[in-house]
Amino acid sequence: QNDDVNHPSHDTDGPVCPHCGKPIECITITERMSFTIGNAVKYLWRAGKKKENTYVKDLKKAAWYVNREIERESK
Fold first, then answer.
1. Among the residues of 1-75, which ranges form H helices?
2. 16 forms bridges with which residues in the sheet?
3. What is the phi/psi pair of residue 44, to 5°?
4. Cβ partners under 8 Å of residue 15, min gap 6
5. What is the pLDDT along the chain (75 residues), one digit of tens a residue?
């Protein structure tokens, strides 16, 4: 059963944990990262999964967050 708020399918259809066999959720990985890097990973993780024809748009959003982090760290 899909829970669009707490466990949306576009965040839970990633890799499966080899130890327990359950899907690894995006938040489990990204909550330990900075905001910008976490968002970049989130957009890569979800790329093209939420709506049709969003793959390239999601990749561009991820790149935007990576570039923002590069700018921040370069100061």
1. 9-12, 26-30, 35-46, 55-74
2. 23
3. -65, -45
4. 23, 24
5. 567 777 777 767 778 889 998 888 888 889 999 999 999 999 998 888 877 778 999 999 999 999 999 999 999
